[in-house]
Amino acid sequence: MKVYFLKRFLELIPIFFAISIIIFVIMNSMPGDPLLQMRMQNPRAMANDPQRMKELREYYRLDDPLPLKYFTWLKSVITGDLGYSSMYKTPVIDLIASRLPNTLILTITAWLIGLAVALPIGILSAVKKYSFFDYTTTVFAFIGISLPSFWFALIAIIIFSVNLKWLPVSGMATYGVTGFWNVFADRLRYLILPAAVLGLVQVASWVRYIRTSLLEVLDQDYVRTAYAKGVPDRKVIIKHALKNAMIPIITIIALDIPYFFGGALIIETVFSWPGMGRLMYQAVISSDYNLAISCLMFLAIITLISNLIADLLYVLVDPRIRMGRKGA
Hints:
By secondary structure, the chain is mostly helical. Helix content is 80%, strand content 0%. It folds into two domains: 2-78, no CATH class; 100-327, MetI-like (MetI-like fold), CATH 1.10.3720.10. The chain contains 16 helices and no strands.
């Protein structure tokens, strides 16, 4: 197991560097530069001072060749220096450290909501194949797959925040709330709507994958044999069928973890949630290269880690993979 983990981890290192090169080149190919944002913020101070502009270009190394820029940036990243944000005038690592917990709270909650809803519905749809329940969930799944997340978010705001006034429209907390349980309840009220929207958008596709994977296993001979021996339905489904159907289910659920971080960009923007997604959006539109590249690299790292988690879960779930690896 340790050797397999180390091998898979080492395979991700060249992929990481390849991704970093692609992201760095794309971001540096975009029109504008950090000085554009500075000139927009203070046009009078910057427009008539060519010497100051030259000093700033040298400071940010904007005129260096692209390969030199990349290796300078990579050296800084390896030493833990992600640079300064030209928009916030703050070290990038401090910005990420302040926003990352908020995004983790949102995405983990959304992932758990999606899994808690999709797993039982997908199992019931497979067990009750071609029933009214199966047809109903199929229709709603196709509708859910077709709905854009931002549209779903706006509809949820109109219904639950504007009309019913049950939940806050945007933000993360109410100013002035004190006491542990009061703060907890207040944060929970702000979390429910964005987390539910982010999680439920993904439920539709998960339900279809779970149903399809389980149906393939339910048609196998060993499942029919278990039913013929009088094994209770619940035991057959959970112990025999679902366990052997987990490989494709793990694939889609684990590899969709980056979707939640990427989807948080839209959801956090709509709900004004102060997280990494909103930070990345503001960095890109403001040509804040250091911040934008760091946010995109964070998303790439999450994707690589998700792949690694999926590979390790395969080994834990399916003993055939362990046996095949030992035989190799």
